Amino acid sequence: MRSRSILVTLLLVALATLVGAAPASAHSALVSSDPAAEGTVSAPLDRVTLTFSEAPLAGLDAGLRIEVRDGQGADVSTGDVEVSGTAMSKAVDLGSGRYRVLWRYVSPDGHPITGEYGFTASLPMRTPSPTASSTAPVTPSAAASSGASAAAATATATAAPAGATTHAGHSSGLVWVIGGLAVVVAIVAAVTAVLRRRGGRGRPRGAASVDDAGR
């Protein structure tokens, strides 16, 4: 009897242990991820998505979290975690390099689960698109002809005032020459008149009388 009681007790303890362990093993788990763990991304990716066996606990206080950190430890994810069915996702801005995804999930019964994994991004170089404000290229022939026309116009515009100045210089010089000659002629005439007057006054009176007597 005593051995049977001990055996029954052991069976009950084992059953209780199995029943208590069942709920713990029934917690939600990560089923898949995009990008995949330790995978390589070769096409542009704008979101990281984690899919679980059950829908996560929704609400502002659920504590859902997704971080995507680059090689320097900076978080390149943006915005809030979005939930769609059994998946939760977050927007990212990726470049080429190594990344680690750190996540926190809360199952419907409130049990939190955390985890992390890595992946590599090998993306093509981003080429800037041409803008509408780009200026049209100027052909060398058009630029050369434009420069030659501008130079010719400038030379013509500057040549006219130079010629006018030259003619004005000649005219003013001629006026000065004529004026100088007139002054010289006037001086010579004045000197000649003075000399004639002095010559008339200097004649001897006796000579004049002899002339008169001869007449």
Automatic annotation (TrEMBL):
Keywords: Copper, Membrane, Metal-binding, Signal, Transmembrane, Transmembrane helix. This is Methionine-rich copper-binding protein CopC. GO terms for cellular component: cell envelope; periplasmic space; plasma membrane. It comes from Curtobacterium luteum. Residues 128-142 have a biased composition (Low complexity). Residues 122-142 are annotated as: Disordered. Residues 1-21 form the signal peptide. Its main location: other. Residues 27-120 form the CopC domain.
